[in-house]
Specification:
Layout: H1 9-15, E1 19-20, H2 32-44, E2 67-68, E3 77-83, E4 91-96, H3 104-111
Antiparallel strand pairs: 1-2, 3-4
């Protein structure tokens, strides 16, 4: 069961308004509540912010855009079926259910495991 299901409505609504930067080795969190929770959560996965440093790409960076901490998928809309250029002979379906930049691909990967 997802953690958020047991949260009071007021807290759930507040979490949908908190914004955080994408994780990277120099991430700074304006919201102190977020800042104090990031490291312990990463530690549970045996990670630290330093693990998010792009070591292979010399000029790799993440934009300073922020993402909301908690986001719920909206109505799923099919944007059509087309031939898949990465896998000839196969088709792909494009879906929209999260705002751009919300890592929808990761949601789909998690759902199809």
């Amino acid at each position: 069961m997802p953690l958020y299901r047991g949260l009071p409505d007021a807290l759930l609504e507040a979490l949908t308004e908190v914004k955080i930067p994408p994780l990277h080795h120099r991430a700074a969190f304006d919201d102190r509540r977020v800042a104090t929770e990031v490291e312990p959560i990463l530690a549970e996965e045996d990670l630290s912010l330093w693990d998010f440093k792009a070591r292979v790409l010399k000029k790799a960076y993440l934009s300073k855009a922020e993402r909301v901490l908690l986001l719920f998928p909206q109505e799923v809309v099919s944007l059509g079926e087309e031939e898949d250029e990465r896998f000839p002979g196969k088709c792909k379906v494009r879906l929209a259910f999260l705002p751009p930049g919300s890592y929808a691909t990761l949601v789909l990967k998690a759902l199809t495991r």
